[in-house]
Every structure is written in structure tokens, then in C-alpha cells.
Write a structure and sequence with these properties.
Elements: E1 2-4, H1 13-19, H2 24-33, E2 36-38, E3 41-42, E4 54-57, E5 74-78, E6 82-87, H3 104-111, E7 118-119, E8 128-134, H4 137-143, E9 148-156, E10 163-166, E11 169-171, E12 179-181, E13 189-197, E14 201-208, H5 215-222, E15 245-253, E16 260-264, H6 269-272
Parallel strand pairs: 8-15
Antiparallel strand pairs: 1-4, 2-3, 2-4, 5-6, 6-8, 7-8, 9-14, 9-15, 10-13, 11-12, 13-14, 15-16
Length: about 280
């Protein structure tokens, strides 16, 4: 990656790189590998840059997964900085002991064999919808805090009006995976509004103000409206065999151009069937 600096930006190499989103960790790695150069010559992070001077950083992006061609995830958008996937339910984002080569990470490795898998928003295995993956560490850092997500969830029972759930979430003491509402947990805020209803459930449009693990599932289970199909948190599996949760919209700021961008994914058929 190359940067050309103006007099207004002036300062040390490290100051300019930090201003452009390069993390301290990556700068340290670049110093050790000699990966920072100017006009073809190695430079130190304390060196002062002049107007019009070009600095190049080079690094080996070699933390890669096993590649696997899969046909159940689709690419919604891609450029040289990031890619947006539409992930189906049943597909984990990361490989694990039980899912070694059927994950979004494996499909990413097939599409981008020379890139490290850097998902910005992580979805549970059975949650469907949009997932953003950065193509380099700088894009990852710049995307980290500029994504707004909208979900749709089918919850049991009738909810007539919208509202906000502001309840702290912590890990269940006897579980590695399960979460619960507990006073010593981290603050979690979920805003919701009803969209439509059936005799069994309500479709909610949800925006998260925080991003805790299982936040939507935990909050609505705690309030007596577990997600349809979410047996971990008390939901019925009679009508749908997975938690009825879908990431339907993502809005973000492009990590390079600063452009505001919006991506959408339609509600999956198994959730639509709950409201026919």
C-alpha cells in the first residue's frame, strides 16, 4: 500500500501511518520485517516526511484457511478492500472441530487464495444474512466501527408496539456458549419495532446499539418472546428448525473513499413461511 503526503499532513512516518488507519501492531510487524520504504529505500518510523514523498508498506498476509468451493453462499459486493457475502443458515462463519471445511471462511479462501479471512460482523451458524469481510488489515480497522446492521427476527407471541431493551448480558457460568441477562454483565441495547404478525409470532425489525454475543436471542428470550426455532433459549422448533434471525441490511462507510454504502438481503423463505 502506498501513501503520498502533503505538507499539511507532515510529520513522522509513524504519525502519518497511524492517521491513515495502520495499527500499532502492524507498524511493529513492519519495522521488524523492513516493510516500510520511501522511494525504494527503507525508512524508520521516526523519520520526517516531506511534501510529495511516497511511502510504501508491504506485508505478508499469510494466515489462511483451507479452500473449499461452496455454492450456498453468494457474493453481494466486492472490491479491492472488502467483500459482502449473503450467508445461508446452517453455515458457520469460522472453521471449528465439527466444521472444518464447510464454513464461510473456507469459501472465502477459495475465492481469495492469497488473503487472510477477516470477518467484520460475525453471524451465528444458523443466523442467515449479510456478512462483511475485509481484504486487508487496514480496511478491517477502518470498517470495524462504521457498520450499522438491521435484522429481522420472528419471535413467539404478539408484540404490538416497538421499544428498546437495555439489559446487561453475561456468559452463563456453567456454559462456554450460552449467555444470559445478569446485573454484572456488559451493557446491551436492542431497539425493535413490529412489522407484521401471525397467530403464533411477530416479525420484528431490529437495530443493535451494542454487539454482544447472542444479544437478540438473549434479550427476547428474557422478555418472554424467544425467537422461533431457537431451542437454546426456549423457542419452539415445531414450525422452523433454526433460530428465525436474519441480517437483512448493512450500511457502512467505504474504508478508502469514505462513500456511504448500503447492502440488503431478502427475508429467507423459511422465515417468510411463518407469516403466510
Amino acid at each position: 500500500m502506498r501513501y503520498t503526503f502533503t505538507a499539511e499532513e507532515g510529520g513522522s512516518v509513524e504519525k502519518i501511518l497511524r492517521k491513515n488507519g495502520v495499527s500499532r501492531r502492524l507498524i511493529t510487524k513492519l519495522k521488524r520485517s523492513g516493510g516500510i520504504t520511501s522511494n525504494g529505500k527503507a525508512v524508520r518510523t521516526v523519520d520526517i516526511l516531506q511534501k510529495g514523498e511516497e511511502v510504501t508498506i508491504r506485508y505478508d498476509d499469510n494466515d489462511r484457511l483451507e479452500a473449499k468451493a461452496l455454492d450456498n453462499a453468494t457474493v453481494v459486493y466486492s472490491d479491492e478492500y472488502f467483500v459482502v457475502f449473503d450467508k445461508p443458515s446452517g453455515m458457520p462463519v469460522h472453521p471449528s472441530a465439527k466444521h472444518r471445511c464447510d464454513t464461510l471462511g473456507n469459501y472465502f479462501a477459495y475465492l481469495y487464495p492469497c488473503k487472510t479471512f477477516r470477518p467484520i460482523n460475525r453471524l451465528d451458524r444458523d443466523t442467515s444474512g449479510l456478512c462483511v469481510v475485509a481484504l486487508d488489515p487496514l480496511a478491517a480497522k477502518n470498517l470495524q466501527h462504521c457498520i450499522e446492521k438491521t435484522y429481522f427476527a420472528a419471535v413467539e407471541g404478539r408484540i404490538e408496539v416497538g421499544g428498546v431493551i437495555d439489559l446487561p448480558i453475561a456468559r452463563e457460568r456453567e456454559s462456554i456458549i450460552k449467555r444470559c441477562v445478569r446485573s454484572d454483565g456488559k451493557r446491551a441495547v436492542t431497539a425493535y419495532e413490529p412489522v407484521c404478525q401471525s397467530s403464533l409470532c411477530t416479525l420484528l425489525k431490529i437495530r443493535l446499539e451494542t454487539g454482544r454475543t447472542h444479544q437478540i436471542r438473549v434479550h427476547f428470550s428474557h422478555t418472554g418472546h424467544p425467537l422461533m426455532g431457537d431451542d437454546m433459549y426456549g423457542g419452539s422448533v415445531d414450525k422452523i428448525k433454526r433460530q428465525a434471525l436474519h441480517c437483512s441490511e448493512i450500511m457502512l462507510t467505504h474504508p478508502k473513499s469514505g462513500e456511504k454504502m448500503r447492502f440488503t438481503s431478502p427475508l429467507p423463505c423459511d422465515i417468510q413461511e411463518l407469516f403466510k
